[in-house]
Amino acid sequence: MQAVMKIAPGIGNVILSAIDIPNATPGHVIIEVAYAGICGTDLHIYHDEFRTVPPVVLGHEIAGTIVEVGTHVHDISVGMRVTTETYYQTCQQCRHCRNGRPNLCVQRKSIGSAVNGGFTRYVRVPATNIHQIPANVSDQSAALTEPLACVINAIDLSRITTGDIAVIAGPGAIGMLTLQVLVASGAKVIMLGTPADATRLSIARQLGAAHIIDVSTADVGQQIEDMTEGLGADIVIECAGAGPAAQQLLQLVRRGGRYTQIGLFGKPIAWDMDQVCYKELIVTGSNASVPHAWNRALRLLASGQVNTQAIISAVYPINQWQEAFTQFEAKQGLKILLTPLADK
Ligand SMILES: [Zn+2]
Ligand SMILES: [Zn+2]
């Protein structure tokens, strides 16, 4: 089968390669991938800004169908539509694992970076990672369960409270999911973007943003003040991994407010840490997801509180992965999916 693989450390070194079909070892299942989302992490892997163990198949945002079940697997059967958590292996003994935060386990090995992932036709994962896709959620939508679970983890850590006024910078796929989780949590959301984001900002409006602001044309600080009785936003969330946005959000957050970082920069940035002191900010970040966020992500998809159709902008067969990566890197559209289905 064909697979999009990182074959060696360094910039690039991603190719379409033929590999053997995996079989289901004890405690594991084989998913036939229907769709796998391209994530910012995949671009960071391409640019060698994210740790991998090559050769490895990329892709960790997977939806598909169970086609084989290993021994010692219960309650999972062939034909079940599923998505999968991304940690192939954690130690299950360290303080983080025992505390329900396996995302922080130093021995964590994830699909798509350390173990073969989903930019191919078949992927092997631990049965304990499987979540059944609700009947009314499509395979394409279910491929967004992983980024949605990451967003839920970030928002949990940010301690959002109902009635908060939130400012999001970065109207990409993660920004759009963050917007919808915040609205579902009772916040009022203002989405910031650049002139290149005009289409994305109008989608943000459709998805529930109370206001959208093009940062190049407006006095953003004044507008946020006007919307917050002169105080500034209760919470600001950086979803783009853009240094200037991170800096601007420090000016928009109120005293005693919260700053949450979701996007990855891939390198150190200049950031005025003094503002954290002057304003007594609470700063939080997040790393991937925790298991309970997956159940809640699937509920939000099933209830329609999170709309993914407006976010999925293109589907490419995996042999066109380069076009897909190029489109994603150029910020054309939002979430782009790869599919092996055309490869039958
Ligand atoms: Zn992802
Ligand atoms: Zn551990």
Shape: globular
Under CATH, the topology of the largest domain is which? Quinone Oxidoreductase, Chain A, domain 1
Helix-strand pattern, N to C?
A: EEEHEEEEHEEEHHEHEHEHEHEHEHEHE
Q: What is the radius of gyration?
A: 20 Å
Task: Identify low-pLDDT runs.
Answer: none
Q: Got a strand count?
A: 18
What number is the mean pLDDT?
96
What's the helical proportion of residues?
A: 25-40%
Give the class from helix and strand content and strand pairing: alpha/beta
Report the CATH superfamily of the largest domain.
Answer: Medium-chain alcohol dehydrogenases, catalytic domain
Strand composition percent = 25-35%
Q: Give the total of domains.
A: 2
